[in-house]
Predict the structure.
Amino acid sequence: MKIIDCRNMACPAPVVTTKRALEEAGGEAVQVLVDSGAPRENVTRFAVNRGFTVAESESDGGFALTITASGAAGNEPARTVTGRDGKTVMLVGSNCLGDGSDELGRLLMKNFIITLLDLAELPDRMLFINSGVLLTTEGSEVLEALEQLGNRGVEVLSCGVCLDFFHCKEKLVAGSVTNMFTIAESLVGAESVIRL
C-alpha cells in the first residue's frame, strides 16, 4: 500500500496529491496522512465522489485515510473528468451583484437568487467563493431560497478557504464545503459557466 504525507499542505495540494497517487496506484489502496479539518474533509469527499471507500484513523495529531476501490476486486481506477459534462455551473464570487453601491448590490443578489426559484431551468451547481460564501452562512437573507434550490437538485458548494478567511465555516447553513480542486474541475468540465 502506498502512503503519502499531505500534512501541512495548503488547499488544494492534499486533493491534487491524492488524485495523482490514486492514478499511479493502479487500483491498489493508498493511505493519505492529512491534518484534521478541511484537508481531511476535502480528501475524503474527493475519494468518495469518485467511487472509492475511505477508512480513517487518528494518526500523529492528524488522520490516516485509507482509500480503496469500491467492490471486492479492488482494481477500480480513479475517475477523471474528460471533456464537457453538459452541466451549467454558476460561480458566485461576491455577496453583491454588479458594481457600484454595495447596498444595491446586496439587494440585487438577493433578488437574483430568489428569482432563480421561478425559472424552469436551473444551474446544476452553484459555487460560492470570496465574499459569496457569506450568502450561504448564518444571517444571509437567501438561505431559504438556497435550501429550496438544493431540494430541486442544485448543488450548493462554498469554498473552504473563503469560509475560513471570513471566520464563518462553523456558520455554514446552505450546502456544503468544497475545495479549489473541485471548483477548478467543475468550471473546466462544465458546458457553460455563469459568473456573478
Summary: The longest strand covers residues 52-59. Confidence is low (pLDDT under 50) at residues 72-84. The domain at 88-195 is CATH 3.40.1260.10 (Hypothetical Protein Ychn; Chain: A,). The chain has two domains: 2-69, 88-195.
